[in-house]
Design a protein that fits this description.
The complex is a heterodimer of chains A (500) and B (324). Chain A is α/β, with parallel strands linked by helices. Chain A has 18 helices and 22 strands. Chain A has two domains: 233 residues, 3-Layer(aba) Sandwich (Rossmann fold); 236 residues, Rossmann fold. In chain A, the strands form five sheets. Chain A has a six-stranded mixed beta sheet, sandwiched between helices. Chain A has a six-stranded mixed beta sheet with strand order 16-19-20-13-21-22, with helices on both faces. In chain A, strand 19, helix 16 and strand 20 form a beta-alpha-beta unit. Chain A is globular. With 324 residues, chain B is an all-alpha fold. Chain B has one domain. Chain B is 74% helix and 0% strand. Classes of the chains: A alpha/beta (500), B mainly alpha (324). Chains A and B meet through helix 1, helix 10, helix 11, helix 12 and strand 18 of A and helix 9 and helix 10 of B.
């Protein structure tokens, strides 16, 4: 139903896509795989009509289309759901669905018709959202569904989903997958961008791998192993994504003693030793992230104690924790990680300006600053190595490197990583893991909060599992397997959702 | 260098403001030859100082992602405080005159402290907070003076600061140059300056990096209040009396200078030297209109048009960025 031939897109002198062929069949889910900067988002943006292509041709339903605009693309039956939602938070679900294409009588809105149409759409995708709730009160999964329903409102035949599960919990993702199955059954062709291999394996019919703006290949998912796909993405065989880390636990550097954060964490006690990686596992919303944030002084601790290097921390606050050698790397790079309009360099040194190497009496030593960032950025492999560029101009993985470089700019002995690999590509992931390896092997302690089980299984020396704000289990060494961690995710008492 | 890099450089270094400045100055000189008269140039530079000083404060607040609408009211407050304190100590001379000036500066810093505290600690909208403090401060000064100028400003003060010359230049101009120079150093060479950008760029990231964001925000508003008060003192020395009406449109004019000077309304960027050049442009435009005897009522109209023109031009040159 969609056929792109030899599509090339240049931005100024940069070739973002180079002669890419792409086809989409009716009722199939076609996954796009590739590292950040491979051209995935350029390709879906071209199909959605965000910008035109430089060379090549496009046929939709056998009709040659010379150029696409967002409007033309929509008329041709394309609906795109991007990572940034296009919903107005203050309006209700129904108002958002029909925004700009309200069904009107002669003078007034025909609310009954809109309501019926909306309910029909939600039935089609097998998901229910209260039509009168305001968008801001919805969970991310519900917003995602509203976004999809909005796309489907005009009977779209081609649906583009850009990392739809990036911030969904497992349960929410399940609902999305069910809705996707329903759409496929109705003959909708779906273009699906994701970094999660398991998800692609489960949903996709065919996969197209892009690398550096070129199409590497299109294969049926059944015919390719994960290793093959990763190799196609990265361009070389991945020896191992996870480095082998020699953990030598020494003295306790960080301990929480029964700390609670109102509404999210209750009575949590963990210890982290120098020279080891301690994992924090649990479903999204179990209090993992809040526990990490509380330790760094970002959430108010209502009871309990935090001990750093054997001393009780009275009032944890980011500036004093940094000074004491503890650094927290946030999960949400956009909201908390980077000042996007500022140069990469300033973002890297943001946490280290009080270091006497960089400033004296409040005056900065600019030339030293430029020199000081060189080594950390080289270690992390920032690409492109252009720290004077605005942080916004880097890809997700490289933005993460800018955030992580902060911890290398000053003496840090305890690193707290909160979802360090969310939304970054395989190459950047392995660089993050290698960084952790070198930190731990040089005697630092790492607390790693993650929803990626393989990450915890391969990297952690011990894993604490959290459920509903409490620490429910501690697993050690060989006892850490995906199955053993998962068993503690859900309440054994109700037994409602025992995972396989 | 590729055209893209060139264009970015041009924008970053304030190329637009330089172009605008040259164009405005040339136009003024062609339309009205008296513009180039030495006394008139000094007059322009003096008025430039009265705008540039508070505009630097406005810029600092705006780089943190805020606004300070109370600038004009604070100028008037400082003027009234200076005059009232001088009238209360009639025999004061020399160093004693520093007391009224210190009081005036302290009053401006207080307004900034309250603004900053409300914005930082209670996360109130800067727009609303400073709009309210504008109203309160203006109300106070108007009530105290009943709209009547306060006389009794020390002659020595007027002759030295207001009408005197140092190295052939108005003292206000020299002070403005010092303020601009300090601001440039602050922005490029100090941790505090970097923190202003960081807080405006992403307050969450700044906090996570150990920046004491509340303190930084409060400092920004205090600096703005302080610079507004300094302006009030300078204007008082010039006109020789304390007046509750002098700040009038300064809130808008300082924002205009900042925006024309390339300060982003969303915070996180802006440079002092460009804001100073923008202030000079506005001072030249106002002077040219005075010389050609254009009705003063038209002047705010022109100010608004220049503001919109600068914004539109900037957007067109920048081009609509593709979201890659």
């Amino acid at each position: 139903m969609l056929e792109l031939t030899g599509i090339t897109k240049r931005f100024g002198g940069v070739v973002a896509l180079d002669g890419v062929d792409f086809t989409l069949l009716s009722g199939e889910l076609h996954a796009l795989l590739g590292e950040n900067g491979a051209g995935k988002s350029t390709l879906i943006n071209l199909i959605a009509g965000t910008y035109g292509w430089t060379e090549g041709s496009c046929r939709i339903d056998g009709q040659t289309v010379s150029a696409l605009t967002p409007q033309k693309s929509r008329d041709a039956g394309v609906a795109a759901v991007f990572q940034e939602f296009s919903l107005v938070p203050d309006l209700t679900v129904e108002e958002n669905l029909f925004l700009g294409r309200e069904i009107k009588g002669r003078l007034f809105l025909n609310r009954r018709a809109m309501r019926a149409r909306a309910e029909e759409r939600f039935r089609d995708i097998g998901f229910h959202v209260e039509l009168d709730s305001k968008i801001e009160t919805l969970t991310r999964a519900q917003k995602q569904m509203v976004e999809i329903a909005k796309g489907m409102l005009s009977d779209a035949k081609i649906l583009i989903l850009d990392e739809p599960t990036a911030s969904l919990t497992d349960g929410e993702a399940e609902k999305l997958f069910a809705a996707i199955a329903g759409l496929k059954a109705r003959g909708v062709g779906i273009i699906y961008v994701s970094h999660r291999m398991a998800e692609i394996r489960r949903l996709a019919d065919r996969v197209t791998v892009l690398r550096g703006g070129r199409k590497i290949d299109t294969v049926a998912i059944a015919a390719a192993s994960d290793a093959t796909l990763i190799e196609m993405m990265v361009g070389q065989p991945v020896e191992r994504l996870y480095p082998s880390i020699s953990q030598r636990p020494a003295e306790i550097v960080l301990a929480t003693r029964g700390i609670s954060v109102s509404g999210t964490v209750s009575d949590a006690s963990i210890v982290v030793r120098a020279g080891e990686i301690v994992g924090l596992a649990g479903l999204v919303g179990c209090g993992r992230s809040e526990l990490c944030r509380a330790v760094f002084g970002l959430e108010r601790v209502t009871s309990g104690e935090i001990e750093l290097h054997g001393a009780v921390v009275r009032a944890p606050a980011p500036h004093s924790m940094l000074r004491a050698g503890l650094c927290y790397y946030p999960a949400d790079r956009g909201a908390e990680g980077l000042a996007l309009s500022r140069p990469g360099r300033e973002n890297v040194t943001m946490a280290a300006l009080d270091d006497p190497r960089l400033s004296r009496g409040g005056l900065l030593k600019s030339w030293r600053e430029r020199r000081a960032i060189a080594a950390p950025l080289k270690t992390l492999g920032l690409r492109p190595m252009a720290p004077e560029r605005a942080a916004s101009s880097f890809s997700g993985g490289n933005q993460q490197k800018l955030v992580l470089a902060r911890g290398l700019m000053r003496p840090v002995s305890v690193h707290i990583f909160d979802e360090p690999t969310v939304g970054i590509d395989v190459g950047a992931k392995s660089e993050v893991y290698r960084l952790m390896k070198s930190l731990v092997e040089n005697g630092a302690a790492i607390l790693l909060s993650s929803s990626e089980l393989p990450e915890l299984v391969h990297l952690a020396n011990r894993v604490h599992v959290m459920r509903e704000g409490r620490i429910v289990a501690e697993l050690k060494a060989d006892g850490i397997t995906e199955a053993s961690v998962l068993r503690h995710y859900f309440d054994a008492q109700t037994g409602a959702t025992e995972a396989a | 260098m590729s055209p893209d890099t060139l264009r970015r450089r041009f924008l970053e270094t304030g190329g637009i403001v330089i172009l605008l400045l040259v164009a405005v100055a040339a136009a003024a000189a062609i339309v009205e030859p008296r513009f180039l008269n030495r006394l008139n140039i000094l007059n322009v530079l003096r008025n430039f100082s009265f705008l540039a000083v508070p505009a630097i404060g406005q810029m600092i607040v705006m780089t943190t992602g805020g606004f300070d609408l109370s600038v004009g009211a604070t100028v008037a407050l400082a003027s009234v405080v200076t005059a009232a304190a001088m009238a209360a100590m009639p025999d004061a001379h020399g160093l004693q005159l520093l007391v009224p000036v210190a009081l005036a500066l302290a009053s401006g810093a207080c307004v900034g402290l309250v603004n900053g505290t409300l914005v930082a600690r209670l996360s109130l909208s800067p727009f609303m907070v400073t709009l309210a403090s504008l109203s309160i401060v203006a109300g106070l000064t108007l009530y105290y003076t009943q709209g009547i100028p306060i006389y009794g400003v020390s002659d020595a003060f007027v002759y030295a600061i207001g009408r005197g010359q140092v190295l052939g230049l108005p003292p206000a101009l020299l002070l403005a140059i010092v303020v601009i120079a300090i601001a440039i150093i602050l922005q490029r060479r100090t941790a505090l300056g970097r923190h202003f950008y960081a807080v405006g760029g992403n307050v969450g990231a700044a906090r996570l990096s150990g920046v004491r964001t509340h303190r930084v925000l409060i400092t920004a508003y205090v600096l703005s209040g302080l610079l507004a008060a300094l302006t009030g003192v300078l204007i008082t020395a010039r006109i020789g009396s304390g007046q509750s009406t002098i700040g009038g449109t300064l809130g808008l004019e300082t924002i205009a200078a900042a925006v024309i000077g390339g300060v982003s309304l969303r915070g996180g960027s802006g440079r002092a030297e460009n804001v100073a050049m923008a202030a000079l442009c506005l001072a030249i435009i106002a002077n040219a209109m005075n010389l050609t005897q254009i009705d003063s009522k038209f002047q705010t109209l022109v100010l608004g048009s220049v503001l919109i023109g600068a914004l539109a031009f900037d957007r067109i040159v920048q081009g609509r960025r593709a979201n890659v």
